[in-house]
Amino acid sequence: METFIEEDDRPLGRAIARGLLCRCPACGQGRLLTGYLTVRPACPACGEDFTAQRADDGPAYLTILIVGHLMAPMILWVFIAFRPPPLVMIAIFATGCVALSLALLPRMKGMMVAIQWSRRMHGFGEEEPNHD
């Protein structure tokens, strides 16, 4: 019986780290996004094609999940420990939620694109590299 071990040329961990930095998952040099959330058609550094990406609502869902799990316990703790007036709570935590969401959303999009690239999803990697 022949054992076949395929070498992972697109490691998931490295791709996720590069995606969280909004860098090309292939080379780590080029910017993945142009503007706030628009994925570039190709990496300016290595030319990797990103037109196959399908992040859709995944980044928004992950952002809401993370912000909710971070802010809800903080809101409860601040309310129980300090009992600030409701308008103070609203002002502080609404600002915090918006700021955290704005910071996380492009990073989650980068991560989703990087995961798709790493796992060859949605047309990423249809052409195998030429190893001449």
From TrEMBL:
Report the Pfam families cross-referenced here: DUF983
- InterPro entries xref list: DUF983
Record-given protein name = DUF983 domain-containing protein
Name the UniProt key words of this record, in alphabetical order.
Membrane, Transmembrane, Transmembrane helix
Q: Which domain of life is it from?
A: Bacteria
For the keyword Transmembrane helix, the answer is yes
Mark the transmembrane ranges. 60-80, 86-105
Organism of origin is Paenirhodobacter huangdaonensis
